[in-house]
Design brief:
33% strand, BirA Bifunctional Protein, domain 2, 2 domains, 7-stranded mixed sheet, 5 helices, 5-stranded antiparallel sheet, 242 residues
Length: 242
Amino acid sequence: MFDLSKVTIDNFTYLSETTSTIDVIKDMAKKGAEEYTCCLAEVQTKGRGRFQRVWQTYPYKSLAFSFLLYDFQEVVPLVLCCSLHRVLNEKYKAKVAIKWPNDIYYDNKKLSGILVESYPLSNNKRAYVVGIGLNIFIDEDKLDMVGFLQDATSVEISREILLVDLFEQIKKDIQLLKVDGFVPFKQYFMQNCLFVNQEITITNNDKLDNGIFVGINDNGYLILKQKEVILDISAGQIVQEK
C-alpha cells in the first residue's frame, strides 16, 4: 500500500492504475496545472521509456511518477540524474552510478530511468513532463537486466519517504541550475558516470559511433574522441563497452 499521509508534495495525485503518469500530467497541464504537479501510479498499462520502449512497472515495489515543468533547459535530464544519484548514494548508501544520458545503474543493471516529453499549450507555452521510474523491491518476475534498490542498500526503504526525498532534491537542484548553471552538475555527473575514458559504442537511429568517452559539454552532449575527430553527441544509447 501507499501511505499518502507521508507524502508532503503539493499538487500530488496517487493512482492505482493509469495508462501512463506522463499522460495524466499532460492532461493536467492543458488545464493549467501548476509547475511541479506530480502523479504516481502503481500500474501503468502504457508506461514508456526512451526510444519508444516499454517501461515495466512493478506494482507496490517501485516508484513510477511524473511531474510538470514549464521552465526547461536541455540539461535538465542530466541534472535529475545527479539528483537521483545524490539521494540514493548519500541517504541510502547505495553504490549506484550514472549512465549517460539519463539512467541510474547498479551492478551493471538499470535501476532507474528518466524520460522527458514536451507538448505545446494553447497559451503559446510548452509543457515539459518528466517521467521517472525507479525499481525498489525485488520482484519474482524481474528481467535479468533490471536492478533494484533493495540489492544496493541495507538502509530500510519507505517508498513514500524516498519519493519525498527525491522530489525535494529535484526541486532544489533545478533551482540551483537556474542560479549557478550547469557547471556544478557537470562535474558531479562526470565523477559518477560509467565508462568515462573508456572505448564505447553509441547507437542512435541505427547509426553507430565508436570512440573514447572523454566527457560531456556544457549542453550535456557526450564528447566522443575518435582517431581523427571529436564528436559532440546529443542523443543516443551506450550499447557496447569494449
